[in-house]
Amino acid sequence: MTTEFHRIRRLPPYVFEEVNRIKAKLRAEGTDIIDFGMGNPDMPTPKHIVDKLIETARDPKAGRYSASKGVIGLRRAMAGYYERRYGVQLNPDTEVVATLGSKEGFANLANALTAPGDVIICPNPAYPIHAFGFIMAGGVIRHVPALSPEEYLAGISRAVKHSAPPPSILILSYPSNPTAQWVDLDFYRDAVRLAKQHDLLIISDVAYSEIYFDNNPPPSILQVEGAKDLAVEVNSLSKTYAMAGWRVGMVVGNARMCAALARVKSYLDYGAFLPIQVAAAAALNGPQDCVEEIRGIYKSRRDTLVSSMKRAGWDIPAPPASMFAWAKLPEPYKHVSSMQFSRMLIEEAGVAVAPGSGFGEYGEGYVRIGLVENEHRIRQAARNVKKFLADSDRILAKAHNAVAAQ
User: Fold this and answer.
1) CA–CA separation, 250 vs 256, rounded Å?
2) Using CA atoms, how far apart are residues 323 and 316, in angstroms rounded to an integer?
3) What is the pLDDT of residue 6?
4) How far from 191 is each of 102, 196, 226, 377, CA to CA, in Å?
5) What is the C-alpha to C-alpha distance for residues 299 and 318, in angstroms, rounded to an integer?
6) Number of compact structural domains in the chain
7) Measured distance between the N- and C-terminal CA atoms of the chain, rounded to whole angstroms
8) Within a domain: residue 53?
9) At which of 235, 265, 285 does a domain end?
10) Based on the domain organization, do 198 and 96 belong to the same domain?
11) Sign of the Cα pseudo-torsion (239, 245, 248, 251, in order)
12) What is the pLDDT of residues 75-112, one digit of tens each?
């Protein structure tokens, strides 16, 4: 008898687990770890949202089952957000599904749309659920290099030509996790044109759409004429309102795809706790100055990270959007793997980052740095990195000797 179940065999060991294990061990020993590894917002959820949660939770009926696709008040709020932000009109009954965070929405959407053996075009590097949501659903991933939006777009037709059976779904994700890249509306126009040409459905992940810095607000693919014929967008309140643990997301757009997701969800869950849904509607409908404040915090951290690390000897490109920086390994370490570098950095400098290989083979040679520590801690990390780079000969020799002794 096999030791693992079929679906589990298709999932490799979680790449970030080794860094997490070292982090936990060092913390248990009393080491101060400056943790840029996980994209976990550290600022509080705005008060008016929390107040609405508390108010609703006091209702004796609040603990009853909810609706798997979300209560109508929340779906209307989500549709209202899209109309205000993008000028896109959505029918809250047929074109909006509230999800338990964007990750759940994406995974169940993959389940709803995928037959065994279906080929999915996926960017690489990418957030792991973009590939593994479909892998768990029985799909086959056609990875396309995506170190720039132009590279990804250029590779789509080639992927279609050389895939059998032809791909059925195209995944987009901008602002990107992990690369932090941003696209304009012309990119989406080209993507929709390609999807129509090759008979593809599109899933566009825009979880970081409100975290942007130096450009105009990132657009929605649904702004493109005809996009709703073949596309849905996966969105989230997690980063916009510092509500990651609340697990509120949405899938909006093509009615047929939304209906498929709603049907799958009807068998799996009863929706989020009602007070959370009411508070989420209050977030979308209420004052938006908190969004600007959260965006400003990330921008300040971004600027501090880029400037302080540059002084330390590590050139990190300034991300135009998202809560991450995507950086090549520093020059002395460019010949080691991103996992080896991440391990050495946390052990020698007390700084945790996410190895680029965790986001796919084309992420090798990079690390992702989360903007989840305050400016003081970022500067402290830069001082540690400066010493780490100055001591690279010893650190690399130590690592080489450890491998040789095995």
Assistant:
1) 15
2) 14
3) 79
4) 21, 9, 12, 40
5) 10
6) 2
7) 32
8) no
9) 285
10) yes
11) positive
12) 999 999 999 999 999 999 999 999 999 999 999 999 99
Handedness of CA 286, 288, 293, 296 (dihedral sign): positive
In this structure, the answer to whether residues 212 and 355 fall within a common structural domain is no
Report the C-alpha gap between 72 and 60 in whole angstroms: 20
> Computed from CA positions of residues 265, 267, 268, 274, in that sequence, does the dihedral angle turn out positive or negative?
positive
On whether both 15 and 107 belong to a single domain, the answer is no
Instruction: Give the chain's count of helices (H) and strands (E).
Output: 14, 12
φ, ψ of residue 50 to 5 degrees: the values are -65, -40
Q: Which residues contact 82 (CB under 8 A, 6 or more apart)?
A: 88, 89, 90, 220, 222, 252
Domain presence at residue 405: no
CA-based nearest residue to 242, from 49, 373, 53:
49
**Amino acid at site 21:** R
For residue 148, give its domain range: 60-285
- 202, 185: one domain: yes
Q: Is 89 helix (H, G, I), strand (E, B) or coil?
A: coil
pLDDT, position 97: 98
Please, what sign has the CA dihedral across residues 295, 298, 302, 303? positive
CATH number at residue 353: 3.90.1150.10
Q: What is the DSSP string of 127-151?
A: -HHHHHHHHHTT-EEEEEE-SSHHH
Residues 108 and 248 in one domain: yes
Residues 166 and 277 in one domain: yes
Q: At what angle do helices 375-390 and 289-312 cross, to 10 degrees?
A: 20
pLDDT at 227: 98
Averages of pLDDT over each 10 residues, the chain, 406 residues: 74 75 89 90 95 96 93 98 98 98 95 95 95 93 96 94 94 96 96 96 97 91 97 97 96 98 95 96 97 96 98 97 97 94 95 94 96 97 97 89 69
Peptide bond into 60 cis (omega under 30): no
- Asked, for residue 50, whether it belongs to a domain, the answer is no
